[in-house]
Amino acid sequence: MTTVDIEAANRELAVARQDEKPCPPLRGRLLPEGDIEAAYQVQQVYARQRLGKGHRRVGAKIGLTSRAVQESFGVFQPDFGVLFDDMAVGDGVEVPMGRLLQPRVEAEIAFVLGADLPDERVTTVDLIRAVDHVLPAIEIVDSRIAGWDISIVDTVADNASAGLFVLGTAPRRLADVDLRLCGMVLERAGEPVSVGAGAACLGNPLHALEWLAGTMARAGDPLRAGDVVLSGALGPMVPVTPGAAYEARISGLGSVRTCFSSSEGCREREE
């Protein structure tokens, strides 16, 4: 039987970030298989450490919003991680490969809140009132677990495999977009590499936001006005090719672009 070691799991992930070398899976060694609660405890330690170093929480990301992906993990709910201020990258700005270990990209819809969501039970009306605007987004996910050999426990402990994120620059009102039906194409150097639609995200990205709002309220850390919420992938994630440019186009929302340096160069270590 695996003994829970929250501090050791957090240290391994911290060393992976610092030494630029992914670590073995945590499950079955430092965290029991399927112990999602323990995994979130590891994530919380990491978040407190980052806040203690002066970083700001700017929102949250939702993962595992595809039913097929949930089934592959043997779970029936999404997961979430924390977004910090230094994870944001400008639209079209080059990302140094040295900032990342095993990056992949996925296209998403981002919600920007204009009001708090403090209640554990939220309605669609509550969500619509709270959302200030929506944007197309590219999430650059990155695992500190070697070879992306992850279970639900590994990814939750690793802050839901959060890396960086890029937001579009043309806000849209929620009332002007049908999030369920909007189509997505993610291109690399002009060639499609991932396609999908809003319905791939729990049937509607608003469902993902509803889940997150209730989950965080129950945890005593509710979503606040100004928070950015990455609602989950609209299509398959794609491994990053050094030197390549990626553009996501989402119908009704416009486009967002990111590109990567052609080599690792000097790594920028996370503080």
UniProtKB/TrEMBL annotation:
<dbReference type="GO" id="GO:0008684">
    <property type="term" value="F:2-oxopent-4-enoate hydratase activity"/>
</dbReference>
<feature type="domain" description="Fumarylacetoacetase-like C-terminal">
    <location>
        <begin position="78"/>
        <end position="259"/>
    </location>
</feature>
<protein>
    <submittedName>
        <fullName>2-keto-4-pentenoate hydratase</fullName>
    </submittedName>
</protein>
<dbReference type="Pfam" id="PF01557">
    <property type="entry name" value="FAA_hydrolase"/>
</dbReference>
<dbReference type="InterPro" id="IPR050772">
    <property type="entry name" value="Hydratase-Decarb/MhpD_sf"/>
</dbReference>
<dbReference type="InterPro" id="IPR011234">
    <property type="entry name" value="Fumarylacetoacetase-like_C"/>
</dbReference>
<dbReference type="GO" id="GO:0005737">
    <property type="term" value="C:cytoplasm"/>
</dbReference>
<keyword id="KW-0456">Lyase</keyword>
<dbReference type="InterPro" id="IPR036663">
    <property type="entry name" value="Fumarylacetoacetase_C_sf"/>
</dbReference>
